[in-house]
Amino acid sequence: MTTAALSQEQDQLASLLAEARARTLLLVEPLSDEELRMQHDPLMSPILWDIGHIAHFEMLWLVENTQGPVQFSEMPGMYNPFENPRAVRDKLKLMQLPELLKFMEQVRARVLERIADVDLHGDDPLLRDGYVYRMVAQHEYQHNETILQTLQLKRGEPYHPAPRIAVPEATIRSAGMVHFPGGEVPIGTDDRSAAYDNERPRHTVHLDPFWIDAAPVSNAEYLEFMHAGGYTTRELWSDAGWAWLREARVDAPKYWDTEGGGWRTRSMDRIGPVDPHHPVCHVCYHEAEAYARWVEKRLPTEQEWEAASTWNPETGTRSEFPWGNETPTPEHANLDQLTWGTAPIGAYPRNVSPLGCYGMIGDVWEWTRSDFRPYPGYQTFPYREYSEVFFGTEYKVLRGGSWATRPGAIRSSFRNWDYPIRRQIFSGFRCARDG
Are 200 and 378 within 8 A, CB to CB? Predict the structure, then answer.
C-alpha cells in the first residue's frame, strides 16, 4: 500500500508522519555509530534508544492499538521508559542504526496498510479526526527535542548541524512590563484532534490583576543578577533552591564559562560571547525564582502566562497563539530547530500577544510557579503514563516551547513539565508581579 491509494485526509496524516521521520533522520545523520550508542549524560538516553522508542511507540499506537481495544500504554520490553530509566539504557543491547532504520521502515509500511482501513469519522475517539496519528507525530517531535538536549550535552567533538537558518535582527530592545486587568479568562482547550489530555478541558478561571514582563529575561539582565551576587545571596533562594545550589556548585547558566576572559556560551558547535540581547537559556526553576526575587517580582502562574499569551482583554476574545490562530511559520517565531539557538529578543515582530508580550512562543521554554496538576474535569486519554502519573508537586510547568521545538508540538495551551533542578532543557523565564 502506498500513500497514493489513500484518501486526501489519510494522505495528509501519512505525510505528517513522513515529515516527522525526515527530521529525525536529518538530526542523526551526522553521528557515528559510537556517538549514537554512547550515553552522553546520565540524564539522557543513548540516541539509539530514542530512535528505537520512536519506532516501537508508532508500532504500538498505529498498528496494535488501532486494531481493537488498547492493549498497552507503553510497549513492554527494551523501549519501555518505565521499565528502563534513562540512567541504565546504555546497558541495554540496542540495535545498530541500520537494523533500527529497517525496523522503522517495516513499521511504517504496516501503518500505511492499516491507515487505509481506519474510520477517521467514527465513534472511536482514538481514531476520530486522526487524533492518534497526530499524537504519534507529536511524540516523534518531542523526541527530536530530547535528542537535541542530548546533542548539546554530547561528549567529545561538538555536534555539527548540517542545515542552519539565520535569525532576523531584533526590532525591540527594552520592553518593560505590561498590565493584565484581571477577570474571568478561559484556560486550556477542548480540541480533541491534536491537544493532549492535560490541556483539557477548557475551563474558566478568575485572575486578579497582574503585571508581566513583556519579554523573557535577557542575558544582560541575568548578568546583572550574577554580578550583584545573586548566586551567593542566601535570602534570594528558597530552602530547596539553596540546597540545590550548594550541591550543584554553579554560578552561571549551564553552558556558560569564562575561559579566555568574559562570559561566553555554547550552542552545539557555536561558541562565543554571551549576547546581551538574547533570552537567558539553560536555567533551572530555582535560578529563575531567585532572579525574580532579586528584582522584587515573582514567576507567573501558568494561568497568568496563558492569559497573557492568548487573551485580548479589550475584545474579550482568545486566540490559539499570541499572533492569532495561524499555524506557526518561520516568520512567526523561533521554532523548528534549524536556527540552532536563541534569537535576539524582538526578532520576530509577529510574535506578540494582544496584551503586548513578545516571544511567548519559541526561543526558550518559560518556567512558571505552578505545579503540574490536572485541570478541573480532567480525563485521562488515551493512556495515564503521558500525564496522570506525573501530576503532583514534584514538577513545575513550563510554557511556550523553545527554538528546539517543532511547530506541530506547541500551542499556547501546551503544558510541559520538569523537575525544578533541570537545566539541560532549553529553558528561560519571564517575571510577573501582583497588579
Answer: yes
Question: CA nearest 191: which of 315, 307, 325?
Answer: 325
CB contact at 8 A, 328 and 361: yes
Instruction: Compute the distance between CA of residue 56 and CA of residue 71 in angstroms, rounded to an integer.
Output: 14
Name the domain boundary from 118, 153, 188. 153
**Rounded distance, CA 352 to CA 350, Å?**
6
For residues 368 and 399, the answer to whether their CB atoms sit within 8 Å is: yes
Same domain, 60 and 201: no
Cα angle for residues 165, 157, 44 (degrees, 5° grid)? 85
Q: Which of 388, 417, 411 shows the shortest CA–CA distance to 190?
A: 411
Beta-bridge mates of residue 417: 397
Question: Residue 259 has what DSSP assignment?
Answer: T
Q: What is the CATH number of the domain that holds 86?
A: 1.20.120
Looking at residue 312, the DSSP 8-state letter turns out to be E
From first to last of its 435 residues, the chain has per-residue pLDDT tens of 444 467 899 999 999 999 999 999 999 999 999 999 999 999 999 999 999 999 999 999 999 888 766 666 667 788 888 888 888 888 989 999 999 999 999 999 999 999 988 999 999 999 999 999 999 999 999 999 999 999 999 999 999 998 899 999 887 766 799 999 999 999 999 999 999 999 999 999 999 999 999 999 999 999 999 999 999 999 999 999 999 999 999 999 999 999 888 999 999 999 999 999 999 999 999 999 999 999 999 999 999 999 999 999 999 999 999 999 999 999 999 999 999 999 999 999 999 999 999 999 999 999 999 999 999 999 999 999 999 999 999 999 999 999 999 999 999 999 999 999 999 999 999 999 999
The letter for the amino acid at 91 is K
Residues 63 and 131 in one domain: yes
State CA 22 to chain mean position distance.
19
Phi, psi of 398 (to 5 degrees): -120, 150
DSSP state of 387: T
Do residue 203 and residue 87 come from a single domain? no
The three-state secondary structure class of 161 is coil
The radius of gyration of the chain from alpha carbons, rounded to an integer in Å, stands at: 22
Q: Which domain holds residue 48?
A: 3-153
CATH of the domain at 376: 3.90.1580.10
CA distances from 355 to 309, 373, 387, 394 (A): 7, 26, 30, 31
Alpha helices by DSSP H, listed for 60-155, are 97-115, 131-153
